[in-house]
Amino acid sequence: MAMLPNPLPDLAAAGLDLPPGSLVDATLDGPWHEPLLWYADGAADPRDWAGLRAAGRRVGLLPVLVTGGHRDQWPEDWDLSPASASYPGDHDADEVLAGYWREYADDEVGGAPAGGSGERGESGEVGESGHSGERSGGPGPWPGLAPVPARESAGAAESAESADTVAAGIAGVVAADADLWLGETRTALVPARRSADIPAAIGWTGPMNHENDVARLCAVLRSWEDRYDARVVLLGFDTMIVSVGRPPATIEEARALAAEHYAFCPDNIDQSPPYDLHAYAEKAVLDQEAWSFWWD
Description:
Blueprint: E1 21-24, E2 37-40, H1 48-57, E3 61-67, H2 93-108, H3 156-176, E4 185-191, H4 198-202, H5 214-228, E5 230-235, E6 239-244, H6 251-264, H7 267-270, H8 277-285, E7 290-294
Helix pairs in contact: 2-5, 2-6, 6-8
């Protein structure tokens, strides 16, 4: 994918005052020709994010938290594959999500009771999975992208600043209580034009069982960045947390966006109780300033 000049090989020349850390060039295919990211050797401080973003932005680096998770897998063990990532700008978010919806929703959303995936016997009782609910008539065609939430009058610069403030707040919460989230976190810097492009910039393969070219998912993240002031705040081996500066404020908006979440990451619904898209919309999307994703 097209990249900015990479300042990582000479951070001292970039004028960044960073704590001890490591440059990562390890990929599935052996060492990459240049570092893909820098990350700190020690745990993230909840106050680190804002300063790191301000300093890194000057030289084309964006912050993200990284976590080793409960299996202690840090970026050098993530099976990064930058050669497999195309350019996010070459993909259309609506087309990407529509393709996933056709591939996954017919089997999972449409082929199971609306409340879950248990099979129903002749008596109408749910089978082994124990989830109840009436059988839906199928998910129907892809509903299209959710409408853009109403935005209070503000300039683009003010909106971006607000989104970055929310991102710093979410990063601080995650770093302050790592055990509640995904384990220890460390600060990282990635050469990327925008937060949505961070996974593609490092060749992240967390969603490999769902999508081989992470840039297609980054196209969706770009769309969420534009519509919801989203920022990629944390990456793990197969996990992602996104901050949301302008989350859906009505249940109708949340349900429309929940369809996008399902297409983007079916495991969020298929493998997480109560296995129901409407319940997910109310619990995980409505008025939520952080979205979490996990791919099996």
